[in-house]
C-alpha cells in the first residue's frame, strides 16, 4: 500500500501504532533527502532550517558579542599603549602632567568599557556577561588599588550617564593632548590630528545623546550606542598606532633634547667651577694690595669675578636639576623671570666673570709695575677678547630677538641688510629734500632782489607745501627680504607718511638737525615694515587629515530569544515557501535606455509605473501582458520616483526641483516647480488632491501647509494610514549645540515620528547606518526601514502609549518605535533600492541586491523564506516592487542598470501539493527537487 492509499484509509488515520510507524519512516526519508540535497547545493548557501544552523536571533547574538569583544580588545590595546607611554615618559623632565592625564584617560576608558559592557549584556544576554557591581570599574586599568570594597557610585553604573561620560572623555583626550604638546622638543601632527578628531566626535555624540535622556534603557537607543563602538574603536586604533610611533620616535627625541640642554648646563657648571678656582688663586697675589686706586680696582674686579663664577656654577646646577625634574611645570606655566634666571643667568654670569677677570688682569699688570711690553700685550689682548666676547654675545641676543619677533621667518643678517638699506635710503631722501628746499629758497630770494614785487604769500605757500609734496616711491629692494613685504611700499613711502616741518628740521641758527630727523624717520620706517611683515607672516592652521571610515555591516536585534513552534513553522510557511520557489522571470520589458530608478504597481494592480534616468516614465497595462499604456516624457531632469494615489487615479513623478501630476492615462494635469531640491513625495491616505513633498528639513503639504523638522535633513517620509503622523528618516545637520563630527560619515541618523495635528515630535530614535527609505504597512503597526549598501533592512513596531506629558487630556497617546527584527541575508549583499512589504496583509519583506539576488523574509519571524541567486539580467538590479493587488499568483517587478524591467510571477498554486513538505526543508534552494 502506497502513501496516498494509506492517507485515504481510515484505519491509517485512526491507528496509533501504524501512524507512528509511518511518521518515523517519513522522517527517515526526509532526513536522507535532506542530506542528498545538502550535497547538491552550493556550499555557500546552507539550508536555513537544519537543526545545527543557528536561528536568526542566535546569529544576532553571536554578531553582537563579536562586535563588543572586538571593541574590548581595542580598548585594551589603547590602555596597553598608554601604560607603555607612561613608562617611557618617566624618563623625561616635566612628565608629571602627561602621567597624570594618562592616568585619568585610562580611568575613563575603564568607566566607558563598563557602561558599554552593561549595554551589550542587555542586548545580548546569552553571549555577554555583566560585570559585578561591587567590583571597581577600573580594577585592571589604574595603578591605584582600592582599599575598600564599597560599591561604585551610582552615577558610574547608570546608562543615563553616557552623555556625561562622552563629554568627560573628550576633556580627558584634549587634556592628554595638551600635556603632550607641552614638550617643545617634539610635535607629532598625526597624534594631534587623530586626537582632535576624536575630541570633536565625542563632543558631537555627547550633544546628540543629550536628546535621549530617559531613553537609554530602550532597545533602540541601546542598539545605537552599541553601534558606536565601531566608530570609537576606529578612533582608538588610530590613537594607539600614533602613540606607538610617538614612543618609538618622539620620546627618544625629547630625551635627547633634554639631555643636550642638561649637558650644556653641566658644562657651564664645570667651566664656572674651574674659573672660580683660577680667580681665587689669582686673588692670593692681589688681595693685600690696598694702597692705591689701581690696586683697589684690581681687587674689586677679581672679587666680582669670583662672585659671578660661583653664581654661574650654582645656577647651572640649579638649572640642571630643574631640567631633569619630572614634577616641574612646563615652560609656558613658569614666570618669565624664573625662566630667564634658570636658563640665561649661568651663561651671563660666566661672561661677566670672564670680563671682570680680564679687566682686572690688565689693571694688575699696571699695579705691579710690570714691563711695558707685558702691560701693552695684556691690554691689547684683553681689549680684543673683551670686544669679541661683547660682539658675539650681542649677536646671540639679537638672533634670539629676531627669531622671536619674526617667528623664525628671517635671519639676523636679513634684518641687518634691510635696516642698512633703509637707512641709506632715508639719508638720500633727506639730502634730496634739503637740496630742493634750498633751491626754492634761493630762487625766491633772487626774485625779491631782481623785481620790485614781493611774494610773501607765494613763499609762505611754498614753505607750507614743501614738506607735504608727494615723493616718488623707489623700486623694491633687491635683498632677500623683498618677499616678506609689499613691493609697493618702501622706506620713502613710510617717510612720507610722517612729514616734518622745516622749522623742526632747522636749529636756532638755521642749520638743519639731520641726525635727529634721520633717527625719527628711521624708527617710523622700521615700525611700518615690522607691521607689514607680521601681517604677511601669520601662520595658517594645518588641514585636518581625514582618516578612513569602516561602516558597520552587522545588524543586531535587541529582541529576546524566542522559540518558534513547530506547528507555526509548518502553518502558513508551509504554503508560502513552495509557492515562492516557483517565482521566476516571465517577461523582460526593454523600454528605457538608462537606469531604472524606481517603479511601483498601482493599488488596483492594473498598471505598473516606472521612472528612469532617460527622462521618461512609462505606464504598463498589467492585464494586457504589460503592454505600454502611456509614455510620460519630461523635458529636463532625472525622474527619481513615481507614486500612485490611493485610488490609482493620479500618478506623481518626482524631478530634482519639481513634481508633475499625471492621470492614469498619461495626461499631465499640473507641474509644480519647487525652489529647493525634492527628495521624496508621498500621497496622503484616502486623498486624491493632497500629497507631501520632502524638501530638506521641511515637509510641505502641497499646496496647503508645511512642517518643519528642525535640524533633520529628511531623505524620505511615510504617512500612517490614519493620516495623523509623519514618519521620517535622515541625518542631523548639526548637533543641538551646533557641533559637527570630524567626518560627514559620522553624522547621527535618526527616525522621527511627527504628529501632524499637534505639530510636535512624539519620538526620535537614533540609528547608526545611513538610512534610505521608510515604509509603513497597511495597518500602520509595522515600519520597514531601508539602509544604504551592506546594511540589511529592519522592521520597527510603532506602539501607541499614554502620553504622560499631557496632563490635561488623560486619554492622549503618543507613538513610540521599538525594533523588532533585522532581516539578515545568507551572505554579504549590496542592497539597492527600498525594501518592500509583500504578500497577503504585508506578511513578506523583500529586498533586492545589486548583483541580481533577491531575498524574501517572513515579516513577523525574520526567517528567510526564499533566496533567488544572482542571475544574468543584462544589468545589475536597482529597485524592486511588489504587486499588492494579487496574491495568487505572486507578482513582482525589478529594474536594472541597463533600463530593462523584469517581471516575476508564480503559476497558479495548489497549496495541498505533496511537494510542500519537501520544499519546506530547503527554502534557499533555487529549483525544486523531485522525490
TrEMBL record:
One of its GO terms (cellular component) is GID complex. It comes from the Eukaryota. Gene3D superfamilies: YVTN repeat-like/Quinoprotein amine dehydrogenase. Residues 468-493 are annotated as: Disordered. The keyword Ligase does not apply. WD repeats lie at residues 589-630. Pfam families: WD40. GO terms for biological process: proteasome-mediated ubiquitin-dependent protein catabolic process. Keywords: Membrane, Repeat, Transmembrane, Transmembrane helix, WD repeat. The chain crosses the membrane at residues 265-287, 299-320, 347-367, 373-397, 424-447. InterPro entries: WD40/YVTN_repeat-like_dom_sf (IPR015943), WD40_repeat_dom_sf (IPR036322), WD40_rpt (IPR001680), WD_repeat-ST_regulator (IPR051350). PANTHER family: WD REPEAT PROTEIN 26-RELATED, WD REPEAT-CONTAINING PROTEIN 26. This is WD40 repeat-like protein. It comes from Suillus luteus UH-Slu-Lm8-n1.
